[in-house]
UniProtKB/TrEMBL annotation:
Identification of the protein by name: Cell wall-associated hydrolase, NlpC family
Molecular functions (GO terms): cysteine-type peptidase activity
InterPro entries in UniProt: NLP_P60_dom, Papain-like_cys_pep_sf, PG_Endopeptidase_C40
Top-rank lineage group of the source organism: Bacteria
Coiled-coil stretches: 61-133
Keywords in alphabetical order: Coiled coil, Hydrolase, Protease, Thiol protease
Source species: Actinopolyspora xinjiangensis
Length: 453
């Protein structure tokens, strides 16, 4: 406790008064300084009765609770949107199948209509041909009728009809009479033939006309039915396509909403992480000040703080690195990779599909990490965002061989690679590429590395 030294004092003030004033001032100073030291150092202060490190201030604790609640709320929203997305994607798959079916029905209707049009064209051609044949038959009938009329008129003028006696009386001899008889018989037969032909021609013409009319009516009926079927099929196709497009729009909106929810979730998680790290740093400083020992390595600057890399010669790290390097040259396949090695990729509905990743066997970025760390018994989730939270996060400047590096944007973490040391890394970069060793890219890199070993 501080005491006043002797020396000049105001008049009327004795030594006892001076001592009392000093004690009072010292008490005030202790009351002010002890809580301040407790807050700053976070350790036990001799004579204060405080042996536990202080908790964060009430305001900070409340802020941390609120941010954690925000994380839970946004995580629930992301899960809800994932369920809705799965439902809409399933419905969209069904609508796509309906569109395909409607397209096939429309194709069938168009084919049937073309066939009906060809049939109608043939029937109309047959009708025109039948009409031409009827006109020809009619002209032949007219010519036959004229021949019959000429025969009858000539016989009448000569005074002899077929089979009559006067036709033979004027003959000069028996031979001439026989010639006349033969001629008359021939004429009679010709007349009979003409009459029979006329009758058959009339019947044939009537039959052709009837058949042609029936064929045309049938072809027209089929054509009308085919046209109605085509119109109905086209309408069904348009309805199916409109329904599918509407669900596609809903799906796009849901995906955008999920992306926004993920951004909010990542922001809330980052805020929670920042608050927790701030609290932990204060507590570490408090404990170090109370014990009289230097702060823990996590709170002090390491040799990497001036650009010098910390070595890491752990055999387990070398196992992880060697497993990752053993896959150099293996093709990239989105969704590919497991603890056992490369595997077939999956569809993403976009870039990966355009590169045919679902037909390839290989790794994506997080799949390569799954395989590398499986060699030391660490099972990682096949998602870079979860891998970013899988181990101890350290500042990028403290990176060591065997750490995971991450890249992120507003939508969250989108890429991961394994650090090899000396500014090099191994990664499965993107569709159309292969697992490779390359220099670390610092554009868009996350400020923390993740250390599992």
């Amino acid at each position: 406790m501080m005491r006043s030294r002797g020396g000049g004092s105001p008049a009327g003030t004795g030594a006892a008064g001076r001592r009392g004033g000093s004690r009072s001032g010292a008490s005030v100073s202790c009351r002010v300084l002890v809580p301040l030291l407790v807050l700053l150092l976070g350790g036990a202060v001799p004579g204060t009765g405080l042996s536990e490190p202080p908790r964060p201030p009430d305001q900070e604790r409340q802020r941390l609770r609120e941010e954690r609640a925000e994380v839970r709320h946004n995580a629930d929203r992301v899960r809800e949107l994932a369920v809705r997305l799965a439902e809409v994607e399933s419905e969209l798959a069904g609508l796509s199948a309906e569109v395909e079916s409607a397209l096939e029905r429309a194709n069938k209707a168009r084919v049937d209509l073309r066939r009906a049009e060809r049939s109608l064209t043939r029937s109309e051609g047959a009708a025109r041909a039948a009409e031409a044949a009827s006109e020809l038959a009619a002209r032949r009938l007219v010519r036959h009728r004229e021949r019959v009329d000429e025969f009858i008129e000539g016989s009448y003028k000569q005074g002899s009809l077929v089979g009559s006696i006067p036709a033979f009386v004027g003959a000069d001899s028996a031979g001439e009479a026989l010639d006349r008889a033969s001629l008359l018989r021939a004429l009679a037969r010709s007349q009979l033939d003409v009459l029979e032909e006329l009758r058959e021609a009339r019947i044939a013409r009537a039959n052709r006309d009837a058949a042609t009319r029936d064929a045309v009516r049938t072809a027209e009926r089929k054509h009308r039915a085919a046209e109605r079927a085509r119109v109905a099929a086209e309408a069904a196709r348009r309805r199916a396509v409109a329904a599918r497009n509407a669900r596609r729009a809903d799906l796009a909106e849901l995906r955008a909403e999920r992306q926004r929810a993920r951004r909010r979730l990542n922001a809330a998680r980052a805020e929670v992480s920042t608050l927790e790290e701030r609290r932990d740093r204060r507590l570490r400083r408090g404990r170090a000040g109370a014990d009289g020992a230097p702060a823990s390595p996590g709170a002090t600057s390491s040799s990497s703080g001036d650009g010098t890399e910390e070595p890491n010669t752990s055999p387990r790290v070398e196992t992880v690195v060697s497993r990752a390097l053993s896959q150099r040259g293996v093709t990239y396949a989105w969704g590919g990779g497991s603890a056992d090695g490369p595997s077939r990729g999956i569809r993403d509905g976009g870039v990966a599909d355009a590169h045919g990743d679902y037909r390839k066997v290989g790794f994506d970025c997080s799949g390569l990490m799954v395989y590398a760390f499986a060699g030391v018994g660490i099972r990682l989730p096949h998602y870079s965002g979860y891998q970013y939270r899988a181990g101890t996060r350290l500042p990028l400047a403290r990176k060591q061989r065997g750490d995971m590096l991450f890249w992120r944007d507003e939508g969250g973490v989108h890429h991961v690679a394994l650090y090899l040391g000396d500014g090099r890394m191994v990664e499965a970069p993107h569709s159309g590429a292969h697992v490779r060793v390359t220099g670390v890219r610092y554009s868009g890199i996350a400020p923390y590395v993740v250390r599992l070993l």
